[in-house]
Amino acid sequence: MPMSDEEILVWYFGGSPQYSGNKLTKIGELRVEYSGSRLSKVGGARIEYSGNKLYRINGQRVEWSGDRITKIGNRKM
Predict the structure, then answer these.
(1) What does the pLDDT average to over 40-45?
(2) Fewer CB within 10 Å: C terminus or N terminus of the chain?
């Protein structure tokens, strides 16, 4: 099963997720910001989308194989 955007960001930033209701509010000490229903920032790191898929996290390109992420920047999933 593919990971959600939130799960991917928790893996990438490596902190403990904190939720308010069903919404992710922090990863470790980093505050999570939304633009509408989409994640837009984690701490100072910008989250970018292309269509409905994550495209960049903090300037690092997200590489996909089908519906799964294979790499973010130089880090393999």
Answers:
(1) 96
(2) N
